[in-house]
Amino acid sequence: xxxxxxxxxxxxxxxxxxxxxxxxxxxxxxxxxxxxxxxxxxxxxxxxxxxxxxxxxxxxxxxxxxxxxxxxxxxxxxxxxxxxxxxxxxxxxxxxxxxxxxxxxxxxxxxxxxxxxxxxxxxxxxxxxxxxxxxxxxxxxxxxxxxxxxxxxxxxxxxxxxxxxxxxxxxxxxxx
Length: 176
What we know:
6 helices; 176 residues
């Protein structure tokens, strides 16, 4: 009799844990979309600072970081601070190192991080027109990523939650 209740409790815990994992994965998809949308907003702010306000790169990154906030804002502010402190170090090196220092909990895929690193490749030494073109190209990449994430958000969320629940039930059946 005690063994039956123990099995039922264990089964319930397995189903709940697997379901929780499914809901977590669905939440990650949503968070990824929100992070990429926030990054797009930050890049638009950076473009405005460079092109319209005609700010130097250090000042543009600092202002953008303060306006944007969050982890992405801290990234931009850290880049600006390092550019002020370490004269002579190439912008691309600073940019890559700061992106590599982004916490793992920032919900960007490996591809997103690589594309973000690629943005810094041409920003530091080109004229303003080329910097604007580089930013516009990166914004197009972000738009494509956002479109993909939006189109597949509901589908992936449903898939992850269903697989989590069904996986928990399957494991429970196999254990019995």
